[in-house]
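Table S7 (text form). Paired inputs.
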Amino acid sequence: MLTDNNLNNKKIGLVSLGCPKNLVDSEVMLGLLKKDGFSITNNEHEADIIIVNTCGFIDDAKQESINAILEMAELKKENCELLIVTGCLAERYNKQILEEIPEVDAVIGTGHFGDIVETIKKAYSSKLYSADDLTEKPLLYGDLGYCDFSGTERVLSTNKGFAYIKIADGCDNRCTYCIIPYLRGPYKSRSMEAIIEEAKYLVSNGVKEIILVAQDTTRYGIDLYGERKLKDLVREISKIEELKWIRLLYCYPDEIDDGLIDEIATNDKVCKYIDIPIQHISDKILKKMSRRGNSSEIEELIIKLRKKIPEICIRTTFIVGFPGEEEEDFLVLCDFVKRMEFDRMGVFMYSREEGTPAAKLKGQVRKPAKRERYKKLMAIQNEIIAKKNSGRLNKIYDILVEGVADDGIFYYGRSYQEAPDIDNLIYFTSSFPLEEGSFVKVKILNVEEYDLIGVVENEFAE
């Protein structure tokens, strides 16, 4: 008979897909498992239990998740005993996953990742007594709402220098193209005290940069305190002595008020960097997307940010090929991108997601047109990036050291202008050894496509 003592000898491997918010869930699950006595491995080939924490946001993300599940299913022929699927895809296609991928032993939706330990124990029992009976396999979904495991010692999968903190989960915005509210439930803020305690814990373990994330960080506190509290949260976190940087992602444009702008401008620990998913600039398309605000307000916000914070780095994302987007709408978007010259920009081709209002809209754009618009908009941005990168030559930046490149010659890291995973890296040499998670001053000497090349100058090193 399998006992808890037997389980404590089991090795857990976890594949985390999708956004940083999903990564935090993965790290919490690993923390819960470690606390219960399981061991963690980064090598799936030696794992007894493999968890795939999936994304289900758009078609490409769904396909990546399915491919990862199938790849891990192959490992069950080697050493793996249990395959657990969690996250957004698990929430969205719960029963289908069990029916169509028999290698999967349990499915856990977004509201149940805190049940990971008990689910694994139940899955082992199911295998012992009724391996082929789907009704015996653990299937948890439908209970949407944030699982706040404040106090859980997350197992960080990021490097020593930075970590994400999820300050809220769910979403109330109800953009017509987005499936997230149906997979994550309504917006729910964590308490400020819990977030600050988590930040202190992370910093005490060597984290120098904290990145605040949520489906919409700028709505933080409205549900819990009756007003926006992001600026207050940032101010309190910045009091942690050893913390160097605070970075803000996923800021909804119409929720960015003067108080938040002033906090970014005046707080030395807040990176002069803001991520504002704009999605489109044609008023017609913004209305179809159910995005609050209009093109004039968005443009005024960008102008205000740059006026109050001249060194600010603005990142945004756009969707091309949304239903009803005509050539005129796309040209308005192209003109806007040319004029605004965003420092960072991502472009997505609209993904028709079943269950969303936009999926039923007339005027669905054909894939070839979406691809062509994507290429045109990215070509515009590439010219802007080349110009901006050239303007960074011979400038000196504080760089967070993240590691050593494969060639063993260059270190790599980020300045305040680069968020991890989504922006480019800065590569640089040093005449003395550097520690991962430390800060150095780097002079930019060259540009290679998106990446910058520089050197640490001895007199600038901390």
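Next pair, protein 2 of 2.
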Amino acid sequence: MRWDFWQRAQAFLRPGTRVLFLGPKGKDPRFPLAPEDGPFDLVLCYHAPFDLAQVYSLLKPGGFFLTQQTGGSDAQAARLGLAPDYNLENQKPLFLQAGFRVVYANQDYMDTEDGLCHCFILTAGKKGGRPC
């Protein structure tokens, strides 16, 4: 991929940053998390489902949501239950409609011996307040 999710996530961390991690069980997020109830400065979601309205409600004004997802063109998409049109082009407008401002978005396709690898990443900020 043209980006490193964990490096991007670490760039948001400051002393006192409250983080919620949504991801596969057993996945080492590689940095300390604050699992208390919201509101959070940062919500991270790595290849896991999420409810956009719920994420928005968990963030502080000025907080950020960073997600990396497997796209619908991925060789494993059908096994994961992803629609073929699950991609950045169709997800980005949903973030805007939910009240986020999109500050970074990218997707990548790579041929691998297992088939096509399709992922996208999106960083969105909750409007209002001071960023974390």
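The mean pLDDT is 87.
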